[in-house]
Amino acid sequence: MTAEGNLYNPALFSGQYLPSYQLAQEYMAICRQVPTSLSAIRGHLFKIFRASLPRHVELRSKLATARALDDISLVVDALAQKLQEEERMAPPFDITQLTRNSEGHYDIPHYISQPYIRPPYEPPVKSSKTQPPVLEEKKPAASLADTHHIPTLTPASTPASTKRSARPDSPSATVQPPKRTCPTSPNSTDKPPKADQHPGNRRKVKCAHCGNVSSPKCPHLRCKPCCRQRQLKPTTRDEKPTSLTESAVDEVVLCTVHRSHTAPQA
């Protein structure tokens, strides 16, 4: 952490308490000889004048918006002039008469270079999300019957099908039957299973001739090629189909789903 301390107080290990404006002017003289980026110069000056810039807000804004080395030098000279005036008006600075504040640090004037003291480390507080909330025991609230001294119905006198207990002296105390929903209603619980709603989820039957999946509407339980082959000639699977004769049309039951255009209409 020595580098961070030197940024705020370059004379940290020299045993001297030099004015901050004196160190800033020496730093600007070095920057004129050694090429340095303006962002680094601006950041270093903010650290050197850390205790004085909150008292001179207008010069702090000019230092933040300076875009040239000469502009930064003008701000440093103006701030040095004001700090010198405050130093002349204040009592002489004596290192042997320094007092400590409530945190145990020395009270050093703001125009004197001083290191930055970090605040003490505070462990993070655990979030309330990780800790289960402590539930307080709630007392049961007094019912309407207890507050107004209304007699309640006993289980023997209360109808089983009523939704809520009605007052015995009320003329509108009637038994309400349970609600029933239509099977086709969207709120009905008697819906068919989802497997029967989609035609692709129906049970697939194999073809009686070749073993492939048969057409669901074919009366012969055959697939399309086997059904058309049967319409042409009811023969074995290996034989080639031939055209039907007029005498054989009556013997073949034509399938209305796979009716071949080669077979004559009955």
Automatic annotation (TrEMBL):
This is tRNA dihydrouridine synthase. Its EC number is 1.3.1.88. It comes from Dimargaris verticillata. The keyword Repeat does not apply. Keywords: NAD, NADP, Oxidoreductase. PANTHER family: TRNA-DIHYDROURIDINE SYNTHASE (PTHR11082), TRNA-DIHYDROURIDINE(16_17) SYNTHASE [NAD(P)(+)]-LIKE (PTHR11082:SF5). GO terms for molecular function: tRNA dihydrouridine synthase activity. Residues 110-203 are annotated as: Disordered. Residues 151-162 have a biased composition (Low complexity). It is an enzyme of class 1 (oxidoreductase). The keyword Ligase does not apply.
